[in-house]
């Protein structure tokens, strides 16, 4: 093979005859979390495949911290992350009866005014 | 054609005959119609999964193989700043491949299976990367116009229905804007430079013109359609619409430099539609089926990398670890 790429021409293709990825040769999957500024939350950005946590961090740095600001990266094995099933999405729905959790529910101005009128309170 | 949504005859037929649970299908389609995304754990039609895997995998291969013609010129970049920019761009492209492989993995195909299908020729990658980068001007044209075409495709696809693919594309599009800018800068420098610089740029444009028209796939009248892929927001724009959008954005940017396209029939009609001569769709088919100028080299280089690097990966492997599908 004669290539325009001098590096390709230097390769000894005769040495590479078995160009197949052997099955079961996958590395561990890691979920990556990115923190852009000190004081901000780490946010999930994607995954890398790596054999060790150290390697996962190096690959995560190459993949998710090439540009912009990064303060830190976290990696966690995918197998160690637990989630709800997406079918259970409805358990997070807020019902109307939960207004007691809502700051806007607490309105006292009317009551104060009535009290002041009734008792002739002036300030 | 980056990640092609063109169906084979057989796929198109199966698409219309596979029977799904009507209740689940209705809920799935209603979710997409509301503009919500589908996530990996959700129920999805068999054909939705299959077509997405094919398309995202093909897109990932395109990024990886696409780094090869550009990588050719890293050692011969004309100056240090251009060399740094090209290294950064090639690294981005390989990173895009990684992001896309991850997105395809969430649908249930392992990265190793995808790699094997690339090496065996079972999976395709974008046709445009089967052409050589003869001179430095090719790097300018690839950076500006091939990336420009890729951006049209990727921006449209990022509005699709599959969450992990959309998230990957959003990251990718952000980086692509740098590719485009440095490519344009490179083109403008050559176009406003010496006679020789203008000549190699014109020559590169002449050679890339047809592959660029091929980039978005065959004309709509020639490609198997699927209403379902549109409804499921896997395909969001027709090949002809994307091609037209590309020509509209980039043709004027070449013409203003007093560089021409090798096609006397290239012009915009009154309806705003670009017309052009037949770019030889037979050549497109020949090249995609393996008979292009660089198909053999691209695959040989990937195979070599696979085999030469195997001992490193094997040394790193922990055999007790089971493969885990990424979460999102
Ligand atoms: Fe890319
Ligand atoms: Fe790019």
Keyword list:
heterodimer; A: 123 residues; alpha+beta; Ubiquitin-like (UB roll); 3-stranded antiparallel β-sheet; 3 helices; B: 328 residues; mainly alpha; Ferritin; two-stranded antiparallel ribbon; globular; binds fe (ii) ion
What is the count of structural domains of chain B?
Answer: 1
User: Per the principal axes of the C-alpha atoms, what is the gross shape of chain A?
Assistant: elongated
Look up the CATH topology of chain A. Ubiquitin-like (UB roll)
- Measured by DSSP, the beta-strand proportion of chain A falls in 15-25%
Mean pLDDT of chain B: 93
Terminus-to-terminus distance of chain A: 96 Å
> CATH H level of chain A: which superfamily?
Phenylacetic acid degradation B
Give the spatial strand order of the biggest sheet of chain A.
2-1-3
Instruction: Report the portion of residues of chain B in β strands.
Output: under 5%
Order of helices and strands of chain B: HHHHHHHHHHEEHHH
